[in-house]
Amino acid sequence: MLHLTVQDHPIPRLGFGTWQLEGEDARTSTRTAIETGYRHIDGAAIYKNEKKVGEGIKDSGIPRDELFVTTKIWNEDIQKGRHSEAVDESLDRLGLDYVNLILLHWPINDMPIADQVGPLAEIKRSGRAKLIGISNYNQAQFLEAVSASEEPLAAIQCEYHPMLDQDPILKTARGFDMMFTSYSPLGRGEAMSNPAIERLAEQHGKTPAQIILRWHLQQANVAAIPKATSKAHIEQNFDIFDFELSATDMKTIYGLMKPDGRMVDPDWAPDWDTGVAA
Length: 278
Description:
The chain is of the alpha/beta class. It contains twelve helices and ten strands. The longest helix has 14 residues, at 23-36.
């Protein structure tokens, strides 16, 4: 497993995403992921599966201090200033005393950034979250959040895959020595069918998904959180530590990125940045 270190906390760079995992699938898939070797679990209150994810964590039998667990505060709780209560509710559902990282799930466009990030400091100081961060912020919001937070932000999570250029946000995260976590790292499947990635997969004797995940992990400060339900896909996504992509391979994948390659764009999203390929 590859790790990065943020604020003296080692973080596994490959995580297991739990978005769209429902019912017992959330429990069994989380347990299977941990048994496979994942030690970074990413969740959120709005996924409506924290109780089952927590059961999967407990079922695994892995000591709590060996796991890095992330959850997120949903928009309505941010708007109402219920940050602290929302964290307590997530911890209760997860069956945990703390999470390693708490994120604001989305920026609230008509709410001062300082009011959104401000309550995170107390949550960190109380020990209920070891690290704090944000998700889905654009560049201007990101910079304002860093400035407004009383405790240093540790991470930003955004959509990122070979079809989407996120260079401005990536450079900012690296400048603050923060983790950039890629969600939808496989581009919802679109990237895996790209001929250039298929050729690289054939050359390395790997699947397209494995090529893409390796590409993420070979970038400075980047972690990735693919989701999977089947045991086979969970194991395949983890089998990326026995090869490396060359500089030429990396450049080939960078060349696929587009500023308008976004696949997640809800009505409440901010005005997105346009990037320049890395």
